[in-house]
Amino acid sequence: MKLHNFFAELKRRNVYKVAVAYAVVAWLLVQVATQVFPFFEIPNWAVRLVVLLLILGFPIALVIAWAFEATQEGIKRTEVADAMPVSAAIGRKKHAWIYVVVIAAAISVTLFFLGRYTAGNKSVASAPNELPTKSIAVLPFDNLSRDPDNAYFAEGVQDEILTRLAKVADLKVISRTSTQRFKSAPADLREIAKQLGVTHILEGSVQKAGDSVRVNVQLINALTDVHLWADTYDRKLTDIFAIESEIAKNVAENLKARLNGRAEEVLAARPTENPEAHELYLKGRYFWNRRSTASLRKAGDYFQKAIDLDPKYALAYAGLADVHSLVPVYAGTAPQDDVPKALAAARKAVELDDRLAESHTSLGNALVSSVQLKAAEAEFRRALELNPNYATAHQWLAECLFGQGRFSESLAENERAHELDPLSLIINASYASSLAGAGRYEEAVKQARKTLDLDPELVPGHEISTKRSSNIARQMS
User: Which residue in 39, 80, 196, 216 has the most C-beta neighbors within 10 A?
Assistant: First the structure.
């Protein structure tokens, strides 16, 4: 068949008409999928499936148009239809396809511009906030227990929910050192959200009595003050990990975070089966977070007691390593007394669970204390693979890079740490140090002043942190 005759045959068999009609209707369906599916919270894979099926269907439609013809007696093969007498009824309907195309085109164009208009309005409305949708701060949980000493337990529950969420790579999660500045039920959530750079706030309370615990939580869109989800958990104390896992998973699902197999595993993790060891660990972290000589030593005692009850408790070893790494910095003791203990505890933590970001971060910090910076860097980077939201790992990696004279890389890590923990005194001070190292002295001075504005009384603590990286550099030179 000659090329000219082939195109003429395509026209005679209405293949052109089918191609145009199919393209217009397919475009309409794509517009429906992209504009309407999100409204009903239909996942994106469904939109992609519609597009893929429409693409695959196009050549099939053309083949069918070539091989078959619509007649009064139904669909017939083209050869059979050609042998049939011409029908007046069919002739009157031969332009029906044009109406289909025009109507479909009008609807699809309307949906297209409607989608662009609403998207434009959304972008204009959200521009002043510029806050990521999948972002959250977990505020301190109220301690409703009669015993005020149980404050460590409420703080621990908050911290562990936050830690589980932070390991979901699809979320931005603010670190506890920034959230600790706000009480559990503050008056102005919108202002707090702006300070922390998040859209959502999780509030809660914990009541512990004997071997029972009650945890109340509520998830709020702080920018709109809309309550997205709330629940109350009444369980045995031995179920605390299950409670924390359920809360973290519900929050992640409400924020529409992508949960791969690793994220599901992290959310459901049980670091120990011994509830008493867990309580001792929470007490250890409670005192470690206070960062004084006395509190660090008390934290070390609690971590060791937790290890005595559960020798396979990786987090307790990581906590003990953190204590021995920081005691020389805060107490001014000889590093040779504590650094070997820090290395031994951290290596044990990694040996017990090499998929814990905390274990690798503790080992990295212990290696920094022994001035093994290249090895420390590898541990910090592994920790951040496991938990990209771990602000302390970013900060300590920044100080490790600073000690190697890699100032621009150090600054990038401290910028990320500051984004994740904007109100941390230590991170703000370390950030100022990185700015100075990168030669941005005016910004460094401004950042140092911001740090002083956060808490002028803790300046000595800032100095301890900011001098640490420069001390490392001097030891390496």
Answer: 196
Query: What one-character DSSP code corresponds to residue 149?
Result: G
Give the Cβ contact number of residue 187 at 10 Å.
Answer: 7
Q: Is 429 exposed, middle or buried (0-12, 13-18, 19+ CB in 10 A)?
A: buried
For residue range 276-308, list pLDDT tens digits in order: 999 999 999 989 888 788 999 999 999 999 999
Q: How far is Cα 157 from Cα 139, in angstroms, rounded to an integer?
A: 11
72-76, 315-319, 379-383, 393-397: least confident range: 72-76
Q: Where are the alpha helices (DSSP H) in 78-95?
A: 78-83, 88-92
Coil, strand or helix at 221:
strand
Residues 365, 392 contacting (CB under 8 angstroms): no
Residue 114 to residue 127: CA distance in whole angstroms: 20
**For position 462, what pLDDT does the model report?**
47
10 Å CB burial of residue 71 (0-12, 13-18, 19+) is middle
> CB 86: neighbour CB atoms within 10 A?
6
Question: So where are the chain's domains?
Answer: 3-126, 135-267, 275-476
Q: How confident is the model at residue 415 (pLDDT cuts 50, 70, 90)?
A: very high
Mean pLDDT, residues 74-94 taken together = 53
Spatial distance between the Cα atoms of 97 and 379, rounded to a whole number of angstroms: 66
Which token pair is 78? 């083209």
135-267 CATH fold: Rossmann fold (3.40.50)
- What's the rounded mean pLDDT across residues 383-390? 92
